[in-house]
Amino acid sequence: MSDYKLGLDYAKAQDNLDELSAYKQQFHIPKDANGKALIYLCGNSLGLQPKSTKAYINQELEDWANLGVEGHTDAKNPWLPYHEFLTEATAKLVGAKPIEVVTMNSLTANLHFMMASFYKPTKERYKILIESDAFPSDKYAVESQLRHHGFNDKDGLILWSPREGEELLRNEDLEAILKEHGSEIALIMVGGVNYYTGQFLDFKRITMLGHQHGCKVGFDCAHGAGNVDLDLHNSGADFAVWCTYKYMNSGPGSLSGCFVHERHAYNKDLNRFTGWWSHNKDTRFNMRHEFDVLPGAEGWQLSNPPILSMAAIRASLDIFNEVGLEKLIKKSKKLTGYFEFLLKDLGEDTIRIITPENPEERGCQLSIQVLNADKALHDKLTEAGVISDWREPDVIRCAPTPLYNSYEDVYNMVEQLKALL
Ligand SMILES: *Cc1c(COP(=O)(O)O)cnc(C)c1O
Question: Is 52 helix (H, G, I), strand (E, B) or coil?
């Protein structure tokens, strides 16, 4: 991939060659006050709206208006089984079997529901391992689980940290922690793609290590779903959760996805929090039956789900399904590689990229440390029409997403940055 070239002509030529370039037209691109399209590199935070989303939601609004409660069975897309319309495409996107995935709740809530089942502490084995710079919500959730079970949240938390002077996590350090503390650790729960550095961890290796030491293993894939090949089934992980509003473009606060490995699909003895939606579909409305849990990830649902939000997810999944993960990732690697190439041309004494260089260890996000910069730089970038994300003390996160970002977007972003440095 070292045949990238400088200059706008190269960017334009790549856009012409790009078989996914037309997908940009399928999204609403935010504009500045003068109506000029912004360079939107924040799909890692909130993905853009597909133009098709409105029609998908309108369909449900209309059926609700015209049918009322009968829409549960008589809507064009009946609401009772609506979540099932998302299953196959979701499974494909995260590399799972249909029985292993479900769309429900929000992300942090699902994390708790998964821990209700897969964090089963004993006096000897009660600790939880997370990465030291975990997303705050994950850390709070894990700490509260420790307290919920009567443990001290300082003593019970084991942190997997980067080495002094480094930002990225090393597998050999996890190995060392497990060698020393493996028998005390009940659960390993890490962010699969780190929100700050963009590092994509080796799920298979982490899961294998964890299982060797008797730990359950789960991943928060908020920054992975729709971005990298998660290959969840083959990873062997016990569970995973993600949101659909980042790379999955399904709208602010939209529902979360949840993966439970097939090996747990028929285990009715697993402790879990339940509701009527985890109950056998055939007898759910008899209302009086003894609880009979559904097999697979569906058996973790609690409530009848918000159809309007699911309609937005469906609109987005149809696009992902049409493109296919393989093409998406192929473009993603090339586009992010190009971004990296242009940034490196700015010189190592001005910027440093924290994200791993190896394309297999990252998705589309690059976290750029700008030496001697502060938030003013980010604000000026925003003024110049580049929407990125600032993390204290000095990191700009940019995610050129393959569905709606072009080579020209990336080129223009780096030109703006260059002008401000
Ligand atoms: C975005 C994100 C969240 C957000 O959680 P919500 O419950 O959806 O508000 C949590 N964890 C990680 C790792 C994230 O990236």
Answer: coil
How many residues would you count in the chain?
421
Consult the annotation and say whether 304 binds a ligand. Answer: yes
Ligand 1 center to 107 CA (angstroms): 6
Same domain, 279 and 367: no
Question: End-to-end CA distance of the chain, in Å?
Answer: 27
Helix orientation angle between 325-344 and 307-323, rounded to the nearest 10 degrees: 80
Residue nearest to atom 13 of ligand 1 (CA): 135
* Contact by Cβ (8 Å): 126, 155: no
Looking at residue 406, its pLDDT comes to 98
pLDDT in tens, 82-119: 999 999 999 999 999 999 999 999 999 999 999 999 99
Is 349 known as a binding-site position? no
Q: How many CB atoms lie within 10 A of CB 173?
A: 14
**Mean pLDDT across 179-190:** 98
Tens of pLDDT, residue by residue over 152-175, are 999 999 999 999 999 999 999 999
Segment 345-363 mean pLDDT: 95
Q: How confident is the model at residue 2 (pLDDT cuts 50, 70, 90)?
A: low
* Residue where one domain finishes, among candidates 264, 291, 321: 321
- Tell me which residues have their CB closer than 6 angstroms to ligand 1: 106-108, 135, 137-138, 191, 195, 220, 222-223, 243
Contact call for residues 404 and 15 (beta carbons, < 8 A): no
pLDDT for position 286:
81
Pairing of strands 39-40, 157-160: unpaired
Choice from 131, 135, 219 to test ligand 1 binding pocket (greatest atom count within 8 A of CB):
135
392 falls within a domain: yes
Q: What are phi and psi of 224, to 5 degrees?
A: -110, -40
Residues 6+ apart with CB under 8 A from 358: none
Is the pTM higher than 0.85? The answer reads: yes
243 Cα–ligand 1 center, Å: 7
Domain count within the chain? 2
Residue with tokens 């894939």: 221
Q: Which domain holds residue 184?
A: 81-321
- Average pLDDT, integer, range 177-200: 98
Mean pLDDT of 206-212: 98
To which residue do tokens 């590689």 refer? 337
Among residues 261, 286, 321, which one ends one of the domains? Answer: 321
